[in-house]
């Protein structure tokens, strides 16, 4: 393991042979726990209070939203170990070798969008707290995230595990102190008007649900090195518990900070609450939170690279070399850096709008992918054919594309994008956001409807040939060439 950590990861969109599988399923829980254990998650808890939703209702909306969204994330996670491929490569089975570019657009938007918002929140927070130059912070974050992504999978797992153990005692101390009444909130302006309203509850639910659901396009990227024999249920449970517990914890903490202290900046509120309890506790929380978010930005860059290379390969076949990995990551870092430096406006409104757009783009994809994986093909795929434009899955998967576009089109009238646009159906519902639900249900139903004549048995011969080819690799490399 130590020797592997000294080298840049060689793999990207190619199959991981059994000889290179390593890691433990129990590592998935802490990994995804840390993925949400930073102040970005706290900021998600500001959405409800900013719309005059009370603390209790915000906590309920956030908790139910996270539990709902994490179901999709966790079920996608098992695909990595079973197939040994990145998540979006597997989507070629539903959308076709070239047709997968359609959901890839939503996936890349998610990775870049998260890193833009992450960067803005860190830069503004550190500027407010310690007067750090925002442009310098933006560039520094990009360099560190890109470096972590370039070294790859094992370095990301190591960084996440380390930050998990450093962050846990600090956030525990603050949360216990708040629960016991040792941290006293104030009464921010307008706090007395907070209560319940359906549009605000729906907005907080959607923001929370999208927060973990948007991990769906890349959760398998970090389980694909696990042995193929690992229990599907064990992977799903570890990911579900890790990702949901930390998100619920910190979103509810954010709701308390917003409702009781009028917080609008996650880092500043952490600093004030922590330092008010114990000198420099808040400073420690800030450092750990920024470091954890930095690791998450590296994860976004890594999975963004996998999606971009998948897209390039789907248009014109490429060799998945270290060179293309590094170049792609550098280009992505330059892109989100430029976007972050030019972004203006209210960070919370931008956060809310970005999260719901991600949700709208990804809901139809996740519905199609999971229906195919668990109900239509039941996890049985010709893995080698996913790497070939002339394989059994074809260039364009008509069924998958019909399901995706049907779900997206049906959801469009229900869109509620804060500060930008509200669809006519959403207006008729008083501003309640149900677009994500419509997208999920319609995409799943449409995909199953157009697939009603499909027989999984028709692929048995190709699957058997694929398994024989994988066995013959004996530690070699299956690429897309």
Could you walk me through the main structural features you see in this protein, from its secondary elements to its overall organization?
By secondary structure, the protein is an all-alpha fold. The protein has one domain (2-355): Orthogonal Bundle (Hydantoin permease). Helix content is 68%, strand content 1%. It contains 20 helices and 2 strands. It has helices spanning 2-5, 28-35, 39-44, 47-50, 55-83, 87-90, 92-95, 101-130, 134-151, 153-179, 198-213, 232-261, 266-277, 281-315, 322-342, 347-376, 398-411, 424-428, 435-450, 460-473, and strands at residues 416-417, 421-422. It has a two-stranded antiparallel ribbon with strand order 1-2. Strand 1 (416-417) and strand 2 (421-422) form a beta hairpin. Helix 13 runs antiparallel to helix 14 (281-315). The mean pLDDT is 89.
Instruction: Compute the average pLDDT.
Output: 89
Range of strand content? under 5%
Strand order of the largest sheet: 1-2
Summarize the biggest pleated sheet: 2 strands, antiparallel
Number of strands: 2
CATH architecture heading: Orthogonal Bundle
Element-by-element helix/strand order = HHHHHHHHHHHHHHHHHEEHHH
How far is the first residue's CA from the last residue's CA? 29 Å
As residue ranges, the low-confidence spans are: none
Global Rg: 22 Å
Any idea of the CATH class? Mainly Alpha
